[in-house]
Amino acid sequence: MANNEKPLVIITGASSGIGMATAKLFSDNGYPLLLLARRKGHMEELNLPNTICAEVDVTDADSLVKAIAKAEEQYGPADLLVNNAGVMLLGEVHKQDPAEWQKMFDVNVMGLLNGVKAVIGGMVQRNTGTIVNISSIAGKKSFPNHAAYCGTKFAVHGMTECIREEVADKNVRLTTVAPGAVETELLGHTTDKGIVEGYEDWKKQIGGAMHTDDVARAIWFAYSQPQNVCIREIAMAATGQS
Ligand code: NDP
Questions:
Q1: What is the pLDDT of residue 224?
Q2: Number of other residues whose CB lies within 10 A of the CB of residue 79
Q3: Which of 1, 27, 37, 76 is the most buried (most CB within 10 A)?
Q4: From which residue to which does any coiled coil extend (predicted)?
Q5: Is the pLDDT of residue 45 over 70?
């Protein structure tokens, strides 16, 4: 184990968007990192010090556990997991391929639970640790064309609160961060061109989406509180988003 002052931080979905911005912020503040996503090259290109980049699909619990064990050997136990990996495939329910619903539930719900399970036992044992789960404003209110995506993000809110209650007396914190629209690659996976165009127009109408750094700072804020203070939820959006 290396003699680092700062403990290990794990970020899923660090190959782009919010995860990548969060990786940079924590690295700038001296944290050793384990970055997880499928596009390993994107994470390696960041060239961050004291950082392990692992090609991991969060739906594969075994490879998640193995990557974490390897990083903990090098940097010591993880003190923060940012469960950020996610996919958004918008569509009208009567037209959408159920495979797209399945994919969102696999990654946004099962993948997030896989992350929690991989670290929480150790945190409970050590009597300290923090898990930040990335939900969405779509986990608090409905939007047209978002049925399955909203379902996954409402689930993130509910699951995070349940798990928080389970481990509160073990000094382990759970936080839900729920952003509104952020400028990232997320919309790019939606196949319905009309919905994509409508979403882009809506972003213009609200005066533009947030920047990934805005969300990274919220994650930082929650984590940087003293361990006896748990920020349970941060809901945030561009000021112009209603
Ligand atoms: P991006 O598409 O830019 O990033 C998504 C990240 O998740 C990528 O790094 C991607 O990496 C990773 N990912 C996707 N599927 C998997 C998988 N199976 N295994 C591992 N990693 C995976 O979008 P955002 O940065 O916007 O999204 C981050 C989170 O923020 C998501 O949970 C999203 O739902 C949430 N969010 C985003 C909002 C927005 O407007 N952008 C608003 C509210 C919440 P790779 O493809 O390399 O595996």
A1: 98
A2: 20
A3: 37
A4: none
A5: yes
Flag whether 3 is in a domain.
no
Does residue 82 form part of some domain?
Answer: yes
CA of 87 to the centre of ligand 1 (A): 5
Report which secondary-structure segment, H or E, holds 53.
Answer: strand 51-55
Average pLDDT over residues 16-38: 98
pLDDT at 88 over 80: yes
pTM of the model: 0.98
Structural domain range at position 216? 8-236
Please, are residues 54 and 35 in contact by the beta-carbon 8 Å criterion? Answer: yes
Which atom of ligand 1 is closest in space to residue 215's alpha carbon?
Answer: 30
What does the pLDDT read at residue 1?
A: 46
DSSP 171-212: TEEEEEEEE--BSSSGGGG---HHHHHHHHHHHHHTT-PBPH
Spatial separation of the C-alpha atoms in residues 158 and 108, rounded to whole Å? 13
Residue 169 Cα to ligand 1 midpoint, Å, equals 31
Which CATH number fits the domain that encloses residue 221?
Answer: 3.40.50.720
